[in-house]
Specification:
The complex is a heterotrimer of chains A (328), B (331) and C (304). Chain A folds into two domains: 127 residues, no CATH class; 195 residues, MetI-like fold. Helices cover 78% and strands 1% of the residues of chain A. Chain A is built from 13 helices and two strands. In chain A, helix 10 packs antiparallel against helix 12. By secondary structure, chain B is α/β, with parallel strands linked by helices. Chain B has twelve helices and twelve strands. The longest helix of chain B has 18 residues. Chain B is globular and about 65 Å long. Chain B starts with a strand and ends with a helix. With 304 residues, chain C is mostly helical. Chain C has a single domain, classed as MetI-like (MetI-like fold), CATH 1.10.3720. In chain C, 72% of the residues lie in helices and 0% in strands. Chain C contains 13 helices and no strands. The radius of gyration of chain C is 25 Å and the shape is elongated. The chains are: A mainly alpha (328), B alpha/beta (331), C mainly alpha (304). Chains in contact: A-B, A-C, B-C. At the A-C interface, helix 1, helix 6, helix 7, helix 10 and helix 11 of A face helix 5, helix 6, helix 10 and helix 12 of C.
Chain lengths: 328, 331, 304
Amino acid sequence: MANISIIVVKRILNAAALILAVVILNFLLIHIAPGDIVDTIAGEMGGISPELIAEIRADYGLDKPLYEQLGLYVLRILQGDLGHSFFYDTPVVTLIWDALPQTLLLVITALSLALVIGTIFGVIAARRPNGAFSHLITVLALVGFSAPVFWTGIMFLIAFASFFPLFPPAGMAAPDLQPGSLDYYLDVLHHMVLPVLTLALIYLAFYSRLSRASMLDVLGSDYVRTARAKGLSERVVVYKHALRNALIPIVTIAGLQFAQVLSGAVLVEAVFTWPGLGTLALEAILRRDGPTILGILFFSSVVVVIFNLLTDLTYNLIDPRIRLGSKE
Amino acid sequence: MPERLLEIEDLRVEFKTRDGIAKVIDNLNISLQTGETLGIVGESGCGKSMTALSIMGLVPIPPGRIAGGRILLDGEDLLQASEPRMREVRGNEISMIFQEPMTSLNPVYSIGDQIAETARLHEGLSRADAMARALEMLRAVGIPAAERRINEYPHQMSGGMRQRVMIAMALACKPRVLIADEPTTALDVTVQAQIFDLLNDLKEKTGTAIIMITHDMGAIAEMAQRVVVMYAGHIIEQADVGQILTDPRHPYTQGLIRCVPHLTQTPSVERPPLLEIPGVVPALSQLGSGCSFAPRCQYADAKCRAEMPPSTAIDSGHDVACWLTEREAAA
Amino acid sequence: MSEQHSSPNQAASAAFEAEIQMPSIEHPLREAARMFARNKAAVGGLILLIGILLLTLVVPFFYTVDPFDLVWAPLSPPGTENVPFGTDYLGRDILAGIVHGGRATLAVGGAAAILAVIIGLSVGSLAGYYGGWVDEVLMRITEFFQVLPTLLFAMVIVALFKPSVATVAFAIGVVSWTAVARLARSEFLRIRSLDYVKSARSIGSSNRRIIWLVILPNAMPPLMVQATLAVGGAILFEAGLSFLGLADPNVMSWGFMIGSSRDYLMDAWWTVTIPGIFIFLTVLAVSLIGDGLNDATNPKLRER
């Protein structure tokens, strides 16, 4: 099994390279942007002398050549320093650490729901490709793909928080509840329903459709015919022989999509004022808080890279052709 | 008198297509005796694979439909059998191997698991016993280093090896009938010969009857004792292999044999030019009332185009469905 | 066949051809058009899209209310006299917003999709055609762009520069080309090794000629489908950015209408619902067309 560890090491190196590339991109964005940190500070202070500006520039190392600045920037990030938020007057890392769990809670719950239910729906639909359920899935997938996610969220808000006030319209928990108590978690669950539903819905549609197509493809394959010819029951044929193969493209695409799901989460958080990275990012952009917004971009890219790494490894477990390093 | 193991009587299978109902198999009668190899020959689309799927009870319904007939295994009509009963039959009493060894094995399970699965299912073996059976079968089909290869996955094996695995899987429960649907078409010529030898060898040892489906007269000559020639869902000629090869009566059978260069000629004799049968098999939904081969037949006359010839015995065990034989008899 | 020269035989062979009814060969484009026309959903999508184009391109000449003008009492519900779709929190006519705002939405979506297709096609075709280190480098770059959370990246671009129609279109195009690139690469990789490309190479065709005249036309069908989907995706993207308040505040668009009314949605559902419906219908129309194109050009699915 030496093969596996080589693959894992390769993947990890690749991931590290990707993260370095994100750092460089961040650095370039800071420098391409019209006006730099100093102008921002100067602007906030309401006009300062050129001498002071030069001093601050030296402080930030902005008088050094570009490559040297890049080196310093990389070093700082390696030390976990993503800069300082002017607006919140807090280290960016702290802001992100505080917001990240909420976003991950939302994204992972929604994505898992969508993946599991979507796969099941797809399998059911594929068993009867011309049946009513199959058509329903096709229509739902189209609708789910075509409706803007924030708009779906707003429709839920209007329907289930305003018209029928079943769920709270905003936030994550009532402010008087202490984290750690059962009531608190139940309240979080209550607050989660609409945002998770909104985010899960588009991906549910997407995965149902994908899994239907993948399953149909696999059910028509020669090895499924072989399995039937062995005398296996339809249940074993579908869930043992077909499903495992059908999962391969689903897992691949789920991995590639994580970045998009995170984007969807930004919008859903904005709709439901969910206190996560998206809300933080939006706030930072409206306040022109450069370090914070770039920190979030960097951090969420790292999350995506890690998630992709995990999918890759899962993928290796499912498909022996990859695991044994000889994909034809 | 050899025992009649499998009998197909008046089988009719239809498919619904965009252009109407296609009679994929029409009035098919075949009988298979214990321990014999029956060849079914014909071009693609003549209904030979559908015959196999009918026996297995695997005709996709819809769009397919069994329109009539009986398939008797030891007197039991498989067309009337329940689905659970059919599952007992498949892989246990009747097994099948397919044309594409490259894609017929599940890529995500090891070959040992795939062979053992059949034995566990039909004989209720424990996992260890089933794996022992799988190993035994892999050895029987001539896989070298079977102990090691039993844990390998299909993608690690060549096409010929995979077909051997398929055969091991099919024979794991010692079935009485093995249906081989173009088992060597996708393989190299040298490997083809090995697979034929293996099948003949296993048949000797186990007494399994084989239905060999092919478009290749050469394969028939290697394997079969009796031959059924199919065209557009009908049997047009049926005889012992010797009679078919030396005295084919139906113009289509004659054409099939002339397509193969070296079957009946010794190299020293100047051989007739290789011929092809002009045209293609007609779309089944477009068949008229006449002989389905008439459009491609150089001897066809008005009667051929108007009326389907019945199957007539011209010799013991030699049936032909062609107006030509009647004309010759009359002359 | 041995008999070809004497005329009776020719006649016989002609009759023979007629009798076995050789399938008639149709031009692939015409066949695809026929398949598309038979697909009710796709035709419905096309009609819907034409309707939306008429609404956004022609109707503005007839319904000339300025969408920025304060025409009526703020937050009037739909059905109010003179403002059939109601007004927003400032008293702007929502119908005017729908009629005049569609152009910007479609323009941004279209421009962004074109940009995405140009980038994606260039990257993907070069990677697929040349392979080797070119492929390696280009695919690393693609992978890098796939890792960036698209919306956040686009938000950063729009925020760093001024939010204008051009910046927004640029930002969306820059973040959404990766799917096109991957598809173009796999198509070029596949077609590159086909016999007709080998034969083109063997007669000395230049790389440029092979890429443009031999491979590209054959890779077109799936790329067209992907391009259609990119238009839908870009429109949704534009709406998302606008909703977050990152649209050009001087240009009326459907997304801008939703974004500017965000704070009033609990009191005035119509201010966000109505523009949302139009975005939804537009993307739906484009998706239906994309699906129809896919079915019409993908021979594997035809018989199903």
